[in-house]
Design goal:
Elements (H helix, E strand, L loop, with lengths): L1 H21 L11 H15 L2 E7 L4 H12 L1 H10 E7 L7 H14 L10 E5 L5 E6 L4 E2 L2 E2 L1 H10 L2 H6 L1
């Protein structure tokens, strides 16, 4: 009986540890107005000579949370983003929850960003410091196994830095 109890306790602890290790931090703030969030990021980008990258998605999207974790924990990617971009997590709920007003706000957001939802989620929208959409990137091209490719992600960001865009 004691052996069975110890085995059960060990299984519960193991499951809790595995779950804690795989649970990703929720990065999308559903309580803020995404239009204001973008405007604030643009002000920072303009002051710092950077571009804004809107990572569109939500806490409902596992690939969105995986990318946020990857970008934060991968040293090279984190450095590239920090030096060149203001990265924001722009919450979008494609299920049209919240009634007509929420649906209209979501439609205005999509219009402002040139309808990036057509690429799925997460999707990255690169804005210059004035808010002009420079590029929309389908995140599936950056994936590798159950995560993201450092090489592909760095290539994407490198191609859209303010310095790279100004050269052409």
């Amino acid at each position: 009986m004691r052996r069975l109890f110890i085995t059960a306790v060990l299984m519960v602890v193991t499951l809790m540890t595995v779950n804690a290790q795989t649970a990703l931090k929720k990065v999308y703030d559903e309580s803020i107005d995404p239009m204001e969030q973008i405007d604030k990021a643009l002000a920072v980008a303009k002051a710092d000579g950077k571009f804004v990258v809107c990572q569109m998605g939500g806490n409902w999207c596992p690939w969105c949370l995986r990318f946020a974790d990857f970008a934060e924990t991968n040293e090279a990617v984190s450095k590239m983003i920090g030096e060149n971009f203001v990265l924001i997590h722009v919450n979008y709920n494609p299920r049209k929850a919240g009634g007509e007003e929420a649906a209209q706000k979501a439609a205005k957001l999509m219009e402002r960003l040139d309808n990036p939802a057509r690429f799925g989620f997460p999707v990255f929208v690169v804005l210059d410091a004035n808010g002009k959409v420079l590029h929309t990137h389908d995140s599936s091209f950056l994936e590798e196994d159950k995560s993201y490719s450092e090489k592909k992600v760095l290539r994407f960001f490198k191609n859209w830095t303010p310095a790279a865009v100004k050269k052409h």
